[in-house]
Amino acid sequence: MKNSDKKTNRNTTTDKKRKYFVALVLLILTLFGVIIFSVMLGPVQIHPLTTIAVFLNKLGLIDANWTQATEIIVIDIRAPRILIAALVGAGLAIAGAAMQGLFKNPMAEPYILGMSSGAAVGAALVIVLGIGVGTFGALSIQVMAFVGALGTILIVYSVARTEGKVPVETLLLAGIAMGAFLYAVVSAMKFIASDEALRNIVLWLMGSFARSQWDDLYVVTPLILIGIVGLYAFSRELNAMQFGEETAMYLGVKVETVKKIILIFAALITATGVSHAGIIGFVGLIMPHVVRILIGADHHILLPASALAGAIFLILADTLARTIASPAEIPVGIITAFVGAPYFIYLMRKKKKTMSWW
Amino acid sequence: MDTNEVKIENLCVGYKNINILNDINFLVGSGEVVGIIGPNGAGKSTLLKTITAVLRPTKGIVYLNEKDVRKMDRKEIARTMAVVPQHTLISPMFTVYDMVSMGRYPHIKNRFSPFDSARDIKITEDSMKMVGVEHLSEKTLDAVSGGERQMVVIARALAQEPKILILDEPTSNLDVNHQIKILKLVQNIVRGKNVSAIVVLHDLNTAARFCNKLILLHDKRILSIGTPREVLTIENIRKAYKVEAEVNYSKVINSINIIVLDELNGKSDDDLKNDGIS
């Protein structure tokens, strides 16, 4: 091996650092671009510069010189849903990446432990049976869905736990069983629902950001950001666990504690996302795979990059959802499924050739 | 031999009402390679799992570097003792360097920094050099052979800077070339870094040749403990393995060499007692 060919480890690590840094910068810039671009689109086109100006004005940096109508469209109608879509997309993607790492299973995603069905039961109880409306009013669906999601994962975790340990295979099976059961409960409720309630629950299940409001950001933002930061903090442990739980333990990882913590953060994100926007699939499943292939599998880059990619993806999906059949809106879950499912099949066929999932 | 790196005191291990090991006592000092041998079912894996703090004993204490293992948290245990398990999962998305650098985990305090410190990088590189795998550094784990992978795992164990190295059947499934490489490597590490090694081995000749001290487990207890010559006597081999063997000394390798002749002719324990073997 010639000296000129030989890369020292320090060089390769620096190369990697540079590659990851560039990737993150590109993703962040793309995210900003996509946000501005999405605010622009709609029945009333808003010029990108105006959009930026409106945001700057809100931050107190410049004076306004546009109409009240423009401001309403940007701030009250478009910005909230775009920002929440970004947060939910980021959250679902990073939670999906963490679940894939935790279960060492490329098919893992945020809803794998039954949380989506649990949230659906919560929402259905409100829509079909009116439970909780008295106490929570307009927020009932969100609150009940949130409780449903978290309640489900709590039950699944307890069922799977034996002698202080939670084997991932058992957790998966318990999650699938619980999810199936709860789905049956939702079906039963659909069956007894009035026509209007039925339509409402079906629409809720398909996922949408149409009802997102500025006030929602006050709840969604901290919950999802806590989840994102929390998951990132365990990047090294997730890396170690890819070599097996036994090896991770010998390296000093408190495996059972780490599993619990990762599940808690992932559950927080997922419950928040699903209670607010309904069941939006494929973001949590696909984005981590895309990032793994294009950038890297080290969780230190995989997690943040998945979050950014998820945000970009979901904003675009939501923008498509509200513009493609304007003035009608297609539920965003349909868009993500239409894009996600074919891509998933493409991924599977590609993996068949290389004979490994990752 | 400076300190007792591992001290096992009055150990009993079992679950519910089943006892797997009784009254185990031994010491391992720095500079020693100690082999744990015994027939299948004698409790070798259980003993190993107890030393590595995976299993809790029903009685007795495990001391690592003179500290009670129950008083140590997982990271501290990992800084003191590194384990090379029999099997490690292969991940095609990680390189040899990635795997060896995982050995720094118990030493890293900052949860949010994605980068290893310069010292961590140096220790990772030195570990790979000592084992002789630095030329494989950028290869993914599925692209190296089984023997090379085992050596990478040893490099990772070294990166933990342990006082005690534990190897669980490190040479099963390896060709003779890699078997010798790995065993010589363990000896070099133990001497060079003045640490101790505990190796579970199934092959008696390997055990005799590469260990300073042997612990022969049989019937839930230590049947014999001492140098290979003291432990691997014809009687002990008969008792533990129920085979007839010939034990020779080879000047060439300065070690005893065991040739297994035949199994004992289906004699029950009572028959053996009558023959004078208890």
Question: What does this entry look like structurally?
Answer:
The complex is a heterodimer of chains A (358) and B (278). Chain A is 76% helix and 0% strand. Chain A has 358 residues and is an all-alpha fold. In chain A, helix 3 (68-103) packs parallel to helix 9, helix 4 (115-129) runs antiparallel to helix 6 (140-160) and helix 9 (214-232) runs antiparallel to helix 12 (255-277). Chain B is of the alpha/beta class. Chain B has a domain at 91-159. Chain B is 33% helix and 29% strand. Chain B contains ten helices and twelve strands. Chain B has helices at residues 44-51, 74-80, 96-101, 118-131, 146-159, 176-193, 204-210, 228-231, 234-241, 269-274, and strands spanning 4-15, 18-29, 33-37, 59-64, 67-68, 81-84, 164-168, 196-200, 213-218, 221-226, 243-250, 255-263. Chain B is globular and about 70 Å long. The mean pLDDT of chain B is 89. The chains are: A mainly alpha (358), B alpha/beta (278). At the A-B interface, helix 1, helix 10 and helix 11 of A face helix 2, helix 3 and helix 4 of B. Chain B: Pfam families: ABC_tran. Chain B: Residues 6-244 form the ABC transporter domain. Chain B: This is ABC transporter ATP-binding protein. Chain B: It comes from Candidatus Altarchaeum hamiconexum.
Show the helix and strand layout.
The complex is a heterodimer of chains A (358) and B (278).
Chain A: H1 9-40, H2 48-58, H3 68-103, H4 115-129, H5 133-136, H6 140-160, H7 168-192, H8 195-206, H9 214-232, H10 235-241, H11 245-250, H12 255-277, H13 283-294, H14 299-323, H15 332-354
Helix pairs in contact in A: 1-14, 3-9, 3-12, 3-13, 3-14, 4-6, 4-7, 4-8, 4-12, 6-7, 6-12, 9-12, 13-14, 14-15
Chain B: E1 4-15, E2 18-29, E3 33-37, H1 44-51, E4 59-64, E5 67-68, H2 74-80, E6 81-84, H3 96-101, H4 118-131, H5 146-159, E7 164-168, H6 176-193, E8 196-200, H7 204-210, E9 213-218, E10 221-226, H8 228-231, H9 234-241, E11 243-250, E12 255-263, H10 269-274
Parallel strand pairs in B: 3-8, 3-9, 6-7, 7-8
Antiparallel strand pairs in B: 1-2, 1-4, 4-5, 9-10, 11-12
